[in-house]
Amino acid sequence: MQTSVTPDAISAVLSNPSFDSSSDRPDIVVQVVDLKPIGNRYTFSANDGKTKVKAMFTASLTPEIISGNIQNLGLIRLLDFTVNDISSKSTKYFLVNKCEAVAPALDSEIDLESKSEEEGGEFKRQKLEHSPVNDVKTDVSTGITLKPKQEFVAKSASQIISEQRGNAAPAARMAMTRRVHPLVSLNPYQGSWTIKVRVTNKGPMRNYRNARGEGCVFNVELTDEEGTQIQATMFNDAARKFYDRFQLGKVYFISRGSLKLANKQFKTVQNDYEMTLNENSEVEEASNEEMFVPETKFNFVPIEELGLYVNQKELIDLIGVVQSVSPTISIRRRTDNEMIPKRDITLADESKKTVVVSLWNDLATGIGQELLDMADKSPVIAIKSLKVGDFQGVSLSTISRSNVVINPESPEAKKLKSWYDSEGKETSMSSIGSGMSPSAKNGAWSMYTDRVLLSHITSNPSLGEEKPAFFSTRGYISFIKPDQTMWYQACKTCNKKVTEAIDAGYWCEGCQKKDEECSLRYIMVVKVSDSTGEAWFSSFNDEAEKIIGCSADELNKLRSEGGEVNEFQTKLKEATWSSHIFRISVTQNEYNGEKRQRVTVKGVAPVDFAAETRLLLQDISKKSK
Amino acid sequence: MDTSSPSAFVNGALLRRYIGQKVRTVVQVIGSDMGSVVGKSTDDLQIFVKGSPPASTTTYLEVIGIAESENSIRAETWTNFGISFDALNYNELCKLANGEFKHLFI
After folding, report:
1. Does a structural domain hold residue B102?
2. Which of A5, A86, A174, A570 has its CA 20 to 30 A from that of A531?
């Protein structure tokens, strides 16, 4: 059996374009790499050890591949092929009409280049532990996957059978009858397929109720050996049937599911499609499989870069050293008043920043407790799928499908641990949030970088068109219209608007209950001026309280008192012509068919004159440069 | 406004430019006795302030008076500036008021 390729065969063919048919050429032997199905055909790269060229088998050869005669990493002799141009590019590809298999799959890609340099052109089959591609992928700076992405190895059914050595596991049945498809090749128009995937995330069973009745649903995230992910959803009977079958981390053969375009709004994995499994779908555990399928794939964001993701839909993955773990507390969810356990943990990473991650529900009570018990050992944890919010500047929250791994076996985790042990634990860290936004409570403002003058806002009518734009600005309250609607009647529990009940008291739609009393909460507009212009700012309760200097209830009392010296008017007068630092958001609102800028106060702080002076000095030195 | 007797903003290093003239500066009090105060200027130089200081001084003290030498002032006006004062900002102000923006100051 021939065990090597024809040296320099590809470059010889490519450099001699007069050979338009292979009849004039000697037979050449190449290695098949990157074998992939495209529709009913297969593409691959022909490798002669030095040069690789894209190639495609004609459809008539498809049975050869399915039967396992032609294998990925195997050698084939090209008997009849043509050299074609890829129209859009200047590269060429081979269209293989006829070939014969010379050798089954080798251990790795043949690479004569590096070896021939060392051994003076002696051609030897390489048995590289890693392909060059692999080595690049493990480069730390990319830091994307927990494990290096494996070269995809297309396996024919017969290969799988031979791997399993006739072990008659139930899982083998499907593999025997059907080829295992890579996830990337699935599409809605494809007939039957079998995929082999690891469950890298499993959501809880959820009950829903809609116009068509009620039911239950859960979903899993599946990852194949190429690292491609897809979300699969099961409803009702299928959900009940498969909920216990799917276990996190295990490998399954799955077939007879249907694909549809993924809903971008709820998309959580990188795939254009999502999968629905019904009760006729087949899910069998691949219990005897040794084949590598990646663990949960992470895409870590360093803590110092979290600011970019604040309030975005995109979920992020994080790795960090546990600094502290709080006890659990119960939080009442606004939408349904349900009590939910929550636990805050603080993580740090090499950017010397810390961030608070809120673990919710089972993660708070389960893995959260585990973390509390081992917090003094500073474990490294990796968390998949976190939402980034702006509470305290930047804060992270788990969602139902978040996944926490303690002390993961990964290069990132090792690097982080050794950094922490060697220098990290001695280093003073700062919270990422402190530099991002006002901590409205103590009035300290540390972020002056997005300071603008009012003219910047009023002269840019398109500001906030795509997404809210945030700024800080310093200005004077120049006018508070005394006859505006300054407040609303709010529920004392949830702060939502209440309506006066027919008999007495107030009805809260949010809490679904009646209360004897309500409280007033501000919702007012104030005019703010600086040296460049003026603008109306909308302000809600907490911020308005700081501007006015008393609560809405108190102000209402003053107004109702009336009298000769109207305390209400005095209060508003006192609030006018005082200066504040405002944190504002600028958005676009449609009002009577007309787009309007809306400036909302997100925070108010007193002016720190020393800090303001420093800012002015900075501006002066910038201008004089 | 009385502009007949302007007082220039100075720090320790700028004092020498105004010997015999009226200046104002803020110092951090290091020590004081009956007839003088030893202070640290905002640029970390030692300044002797002569005259009759107030009975009690706070950490920071503004003095207005005639510069007698490159490190002493005979003060006419003494004002306590409290315990929290941004010396760095004041120092920058002195530099700007005697440099690039001198024309804005009397």
Report:
1. no
2. A570
pLDDT recorded at residue A522: 95
Determine contact: B89 vs chain A, CB below 8 A.
yes
Task: Give the architecture-level CATH label for domain A183-285.
Answer: Beta Barrel (2.40)
Q: Which two tokens stand for residue A622?
A: 């910038």
Q: Tell if the CB–CB gap between B89 and A614 is shorter than 8 Å.
A: yes
Q: Are A239 and A214 in contact (CB under 8 A)?
A: no
B100 belongs to a structural domain: no
Q: Which of A298-307, A379-388, A464-473 is modeled with the greatest confidence? A: A379-388
- What is the DSSP track for A316-351? EEEEEEEEEEPPPEEEE-TTT--EEEEEEEEEE-TT
Distance from CA of A582 to the nearest CA of B (A): 23
- Provide, as residue numbers in chain B, all residues whose Cβ is less than 8 Å from the Cβ of A610: 86, 89
Are B100 and A613 an interchain contact pair (Cβ–Cβ within 8 Å)?
A: no
Give the chain B residue whose CA is nearest to the CA of A623. Answer: B100
Q: How many other C-beta atoms can be found within 10 angstroms of the C-beta atom of residue A103? A: 19
Give the per-residue pLDDT at A433: 65
Topology (CATH level 3) of domain A303-431: OB fold (Dihydrolipoamide Acetyltransferase, E2P) (2.40.50)
Burial environment of residue A58 by CB neighbours within 10 A (0 to 12, 13 to 18, 19 or more): middle
Looking at the domain assignment, is residue B48 inside a domain? yes
Indicate whether this model's pTM tops 0.90.
no
The helix (run of H) or strand (run of E) holding residue A416 is: helix A411-419
Tell me, what amino acid is at A460?
N
Q: Is residue B94 part of a domain?
A: no
In total, how many domains does chain B have?
Answer: 1
Paired with A223 in beta bridges are: A198, A229
| Residue-wise pLDDT tens digits, A365-418 | 888 888 988 888 889 999 988 988 877 778 899 987 788 888 888 888 898 998
DSSP class of residue A444 equals B
Residue A155 above 70 pLDDT? no
Residue B57 is part of a domain; what is its CATH number?
2.40.50.140
Spelled out in words, what is the top-level CATH class assigned to the domain A9-103? Answer: mainly beta
Class of domain A444-486+523-617: mainly beta
Report which DSSP code applies to B91. Answer: H
Q: Indicate if A303-431 has the same CATH topology as A183-285.
A: yes
Per residue in A164-203, pLDDT tens?
444 444 444 444 455 788 888 888 887 788 898 888 888 8
Tell me what the mean pLDDT of segment A62-84 comes to. Answer: 84
Domain layout of chain A by residue ranges: 9-103, 183-285, 303-431, 444-486+523-617
For the sheet with A513-515, list strands across it: A498-500, A506-508, A513-515
Containing A354, the helix (H) or strand (E) segment is strand A353-360
Q: Among the residues of A185-322, which ranges form H helices?
A: 236-243
Q: Which position has the higher pLDDT, A290 or B66?
A: B66
pLDDT value for A159: 57
Domain enclosing residue B28, as ranges = 8-86
3-state secondary structure A117-185: HHHCCCCCCCCCCCCHHHHHHCCCCCCCCCCCCCCCCCCCHHHHHHHHCCCCCHHHHHHHHCCEECHHH
Residues of A within 8 A of B88 (CB-CB) are: 614
